[in-house]
Amino acid sequence: MNQARQRDIVFLAVAGAQACWIYTALLLLDVKAVEGSLPVFYLLSFYPLAFVLGKALRYLPWGKIPLFLLNWGLWFLWFLALAKYHTAPFADLLEPAWPLAVFSGIFQVSNLVSSEQLILVCSVLLWWLGGRLLHLRLDFSTLLTEFQFGVALLLVLFFFETQWDLNLPGLVPITMAFFVFSFAGTAVTHAREGAGWLSGPFRSRWMSLLIFTILSILIGGMIIVALVKPDILKLIFSLLTMAWNFFWELVFRVLSFLANLFASQEPANLPAMPAMPPVPAEPPVWTKLFRLPEWVRRVGSIVMVVIWGILILAALWSVSSQILHWLRQRLEGMGEVEVEPMSGAFFDDLLALLKGLLLLASRFFRFLSRPFRHKQRVHAASPEISSIRAIYRRMMDWADSAGCPRNVAQTPYEYLRVLAQWLPEAGEDFAFITNHYVLVRYGDCFPSHGTLNQVKTTWEKLRQAKPDLPGKH
Asked: Pick from 463, 429, 436: which is nearest to 450 by CA?
């Protein structure tokens, strides 16, 4: 299988896995939010259309801003076409009634969500997902990340479906298709990297085992769906609920029995009912001048919460310090235990935890903003830099052939001292070439043509030297 076909298969696998949870989310929104008035299949067309048009727009010799505007202009045209079909499919295209109906549905302000608003939001998200598919790096880590995200999202959608008792159709085929797409893409990426079972000598056996496993899962799932009915599941859940309630009722009975053992034997006299307090009179008008505004009360409450939080943290810090001090004293009394105090270790661990959380958050935001980041272009080294590096390599080869090789662990300046001891009369030439090599190799220095000519002249002068004492010092 060639590389182009493998890449197409991986694209298809990622797109198919994403389409499974996208379709499930749209179906859930359609049934729960707008009661079946959402054009699900027409909305799904935004996803592959964004991918195809985005791939075609790459071949246009335009800048990034015109391509970006053209891309979202095409989305707007397709959104208008879908909105027109959804609002008035048989109306005239130039009739102003259907655009007014679409925009009034989008900008309506009510407690319920309109189908026009959902079409707008879903079309934008699906168009963005189709463009994001173009910028994905098709390797094993990407496939694994997409699989984990898809599984988590499907579990959340299935949880809401069961809580709302919607009984959506086709969830079992969607789930099976998601796993088939994900596993196929993972296998192909392993084969492309030379680490999968498709590239090994036993790929026929593994393929047979994979097909047998998929068939077993499909047949087992069909049997379970046929045998396990909703009535049986409700009976199992009711039995578990009864057992859970019986357990807690037993716990409460035991606790109440233990509490009665310590109760007083004297009969308790009920206190007399207090008289109805009189209704307070209205306060004077001048007291309103001393009332605090609402925003001052909110700010004060926030400040008090912060102060109490600081006091609680300080108390916890003090208690933990005392406990650690007590443990250290107890351990110091043991002869076989050596205790080493580490002041500030808890604070360092807390800082490390916060840094780890910030690192995870930054990675998450970088993952979200990956499609909008510009790709870094790899710039080739300039001819001046390449020439200076080549001259330094020739100098090392010349010294090696003359009896002064460079050790692998030596830095350029350490090797310079060896060269100066080996050939003292050429020490300045060695230093001149080494300094410019270090500047272009480890720094951001860009040499000029005059500097390059000086280095070449120094190298030609150095080649004429005749070392009298060959050998390594």
From this structure: 436
Q: Pick the residue with more confidence: 126 or 278?
A: 126
Task: Say which amino acid occupies 106.
Answer: I
Structure pTM? 0.44
Encoded amino acid at 176, one letter = M
Alpha-carbon distance of 411 to 429, in angstroms, equals: 18
First to last CA, the chain: 57
Residues 6+ apart with CB under 8 A from 441: 389, 412
Residue range 257-275, pLDDT digits in tens: 666 655 455 555 555 555 6
Q: Which two tokens stand for residue 460?
A: 């030609």
HSE-up of residue 101 (Cα within 13 Å, Cβ side): 14
Task: Collect all residues with Cβ–Cβ distance below 8 Å to 147 and sequence separation of at least 6.
Answer: 17, 182, 186
Contacts of 165 by beta carbon, 8 Å cutoff, 6+ apart? none
Is the pLDDT at 413 greater than 80? The verdict is yes
* Separation of CA 9 from chain center: 24
Query: How far from 216 is each of 151, 219, 380, CA to CA, in Å?
Result: 21, 5, 54
Cα(243)–Cα(235) distance, integer angstroms = 12
Angle formed by the axes of helices 115-134 and 3-32, nearest 10°: 160
3-state SS of the chain is CCHHHHHHHHHHHHHHHHHHHHHHHHHHHHHHCCCCCCCHHHHHCHHHHHHHHHHHHCCCCCCHHHHHHHHHHHHHHHHHHHHHHHHCCCCCCCCCHHHHHHHHHHCCCCCCCCHHHHHHHHHHHHHHHHHHHHCCCCCHHHHHHHHHHHHHHHHHHHHHHHHCCCCCCCHHHHHHHHHHHHHHHHHHHHHHCCCCHHHCCCHHHHHHHHHHHHHHHHHHHHHHHHHCCHHHHHHHHHHHHHHHHHHHHHHHHHHHHHHHHCCCCCCCCCCCCCCCCCCCCCCCHHHHHHCCCHHHHHHHHHHHHHHHHHHHHHHHHHHHHHHHHHHHHHHHCCCCCCCCCCCCHHHHHHHHHHHHHHHHHHHHHHHHCHHHCCCCCCCCCCHHHHHHHHHHHHHHHHHHHHCCCCCCCCCHHHHHHHHHHHCHHHHHHHHHHHHHHHHHHHCCCCCCHHHHHHHHHHHHHHHCCCCCCCCCC
